[in-house]
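Worked problem 6 (solution included).
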Amino acid sequence: MTVLVTGGAGYIGSHTCLELLGQGYEVVVVDNFCNSSPEAVKRVKALSGKEFEFYEADVRDEKALGDVFRRHDIGCVIHFAGLKAVGESVQMPLRYYGNNLESTIKLCEAMKRAGVNQIIFSSSATVYNGENAMPLTEASRTGDCTNPYGWTKYMCEQILRDAAATEGLSVVLLRYFNPIGAHVSGQIGEDPADIPNNLMPYIAQTAVGRREYLRVFGSDYSTPDGTGVRDYIHVSDLAKGHVAAIQYCQKHTGCEVFNLGTGKGTSVLELLRAFEKAVGKPIPYQITERRPGDLATCYAATEKAAEVLGWRAEKTIHDACADSWRWQSMNPMGYGK
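Solution. The predicted structure is:
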């Protein structure tokens, strides 16, 4: 089967493309490189030993997207394409709503015209309400998101639910927790276009000397060491979750949602110490004030994905730190921007 991967040159997209190719799927990628690199595409081809079609295009470009569907017999779509920086979304909400919602709508319309009815959507734990008890289950309350990025994911989920109900789509919504790590080869990994918004690349860039020190936002939370606790999942495990979702999508109609996480919480300082162990040296950091909207603790209930998809995260925090350091030390400036 041929899988169209929008945003397939990005961090999670590139790892998922590599996993798909390894599992025997044909891959077609669409990406506009707004926060990714052509080098990632090149390296996925080299690592997999397989060629695949790539189109540099914006998913909102109706003609370009239509051409892709006309040229290929697409069986399923994985939709990663979208803007994803939480802080930036607060500063530029209209850009985020315009890009993320329009790209999803345009994609659904193109799928309908092409007769393609299976889609896996890259959603996020940011859709959950901040007052839920932990761990978060798929039935936990959503909405009241703390930033425009989270609201775009929430709204896109609703768009896809409605499309599943009225257009006959088979939809799987995958709510990621905190992706970290890199491919074990060190050839592909997370390469933010600017100052990292996520913890792991900031630690890695500090360790390699690109940043002076790590800022730890808050040390007075009600957690074992006072720093925020999150559910960090290795990106390679996350990629495997998408393959399991495709297999589910082929056998079911309607819309279903799954958490993709480890089910375990790790604090900022615990992750930092694990990374220091991988590097073999201390990493400078400073405690600063809390960021508005940050929760003390956030981690997933993962039983549904295990029972229905047959998927569980397998890699540890130490695996993720070792792989992230291998990526960053082999590629100090990422893909070379």
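Discussion: Residues 19 and 218 are 37 Å apart (CA to CA).
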